[in-house]
Specification:
- This protein is α/β, with parallel strands linked by helices.
- It has a single domain (4-188), classed as Dihydrofolate Reductase, subunit A (3-Layer(aba) Sandwich).
- The chain is 19% helix and 25% strand.
- The chain has 5 helices and 8 strands.
- It has helices spanning 30-33, 43-51, 59-65, 108-115, 128-136, and strands spanning 4-11, 54-58, 83-86, 102-105, 122-125, 142-148, 169-176, 182-188.
- The chain has an 8-stranded mixed β-sheet, with helices on both faces.
- Strand 7 (169-176) and strand 8 (182-188) form a beta hairpin.
- The relative contact order is 0.26.
Length: 190
């Protein structure tokens, strides 16, 4: 079974919306506007590219990343990596070219089936709605969280407010940086 890793920039109050400057959110770009940039705080992002063998995205994140990530040197390792986009709306003709093979999945069940295939870790960036659905379905195996010392109030949250049984996590890696960012890597305990 493949490991599904959720990677997110998250404010201390749980907001994950528009960390890189995506339009339409009041605090858009909060990861670089309000916190000093320290390269060492983002080391895990390079490691994710080295360790992952596929990328999983929701439609909104795919539509935000696909026009820019293919040509960005910071994300070069992802260029030819297989990608899976979970969407009930996206069509094959809407997929970008030159960003590796991309498959559209239509449901959480199809993500569960993907996890049963042979291969290495699958990394999921952004994709707040998808993250909540996969977390609630018990399909996420690990969380890579960079927690920013900000309270943003309103905005899309990483986790749903669904009433469910407690899900235990085991902290396997952590670090605090001088700019207040905390790296927390959690494995889901099954």
């Amino acid at each position: 079974m493949r490991t599904l890793i959720s990677s997110a920039f998250v404010s201390l109050d749980g907001v994950v919306e528009a960390p890189g400057g995506e339009p339409g959110y009041r605090n858009s770009g909060w990861t670089f506007k309000h916190v000093e940039f320290l390269p060492e705080a983002f080391e895990i992002k390079g490691r994710e590219q080295q360790e992952a063998t596929a990328m999983l995205l929701g439609r909104v994140s795919y539509e935000a990343f696909s026009p820019v990530w293919p040509s960005m040197e910071d994300f070069a390792e992802y260029k030819d990596m297989p990608k899976y986009v979970v969407s009930t709306e996206l069509t094959d003709d809407a997929l970008v070219t030159g960003w590796g093979p991309t498959t559209i999945l239509r449901s959480v069940d199809e993500v569960a089936a993907l996890k049963e295939t042979e291969g290495g870790p699958i990394i999921m960036h952004g994709s707040a709605t998808l993250n909540r659905a996969l977390s609630d379905a018990g399909l996420i195996d690990r969380y890579h969280l960079l927690v920013f010392p900000l309270l943003l109030g309103a905005g899309k949250r990483l986790f749903s407010s669904t009433d469910k049984d407690a899900q235990k996590l085991r902290l396997v890696e952590h670090e605090v940086y001088s700019n207040g960012i905390q790296k927390n890597v959690f494995d889901v305990v099954r």
